[in-house]
# Entry
Amino acid sequence: MTIRSPSVAGMFYPGDAAACRQELARYLDKVPPGRLSGPVLGGVVPHAGWVYSGPTAAHLYARVDPAVETVVLLGAVHHWGVDAPSVYPDGAWRSPLGDCLVDGELADALISSPDSVVGSSREAHAHEHSIEVQVPFVQYLAPEARILPLAVPPSRLALTAGQQLARAILGLNRRAVMIASSDLTHYGPRYGMAPAGLGAKALAWAKANDQRLIDEVVALHGSQVLQVAAEDRSACGAGAIAAAIACAQALGATAGRLLHHTTSHDAQPMGQPSDFVGYAAIAFLA
# Structure
């Protein structure tokens, strides 16, 4: 069996099982109680180091049904050479919590359709962190679930990939949830984006920039997500988000809900706001 070994364990999140479990429990314990208006079919989480993004991601994961059979993890693409949606086809992903099996049957159903826009590529996932940091969340909360890792670049193919993913899920009658991994606005000189300078005005500007995208995600406007993210530079995983929206809608999602919105500066303040990244947890509800 092919095993995808972790690339950022010990850096983005703890490298041993006990520390992983302790951190995950701490994040989840801080999620306020409350019922949503319907079942969670999917959503959006961030993918930075857990110390920054983990508490936000927990707001969605805490509401995922632990009896889910497959968690489709749609990832941002941070490396050159991934030009089309690419699935990790089989085997398992290893984390400090053990090996998490890939739903190879669902992967095959997705890529074997004659009109599929999704290809099979282990290489597309070799060093990408956006999905990897989600795997321990899945293992902790839904230990029997399999995953389907799907890297999605921000093109119009994302919408088609999401629709084809839904068709494959329905064809196999899978109890599945689709989670898009994306950070939001990358603000500051380090990122070449500082139109409001530094300080409090910069933080307010970046949050407003995030909010324009969040509004489209909550409205389940997949096409607009791609457009707004490109225009405003407000998401690194716009393709993953658009694909997740298209899939969730085909499976019955009718509304989105913002669960949490923050920035890396708010999570770990270090002087005046200068270089920071936005994070949001959003649920797609039936």
About this structure: The chain is about 35% helix and 20% strand. The first helix runs from residue 17 to 29. The chain has one domain: 3-285. The chain has a mean pLDDT of 97.
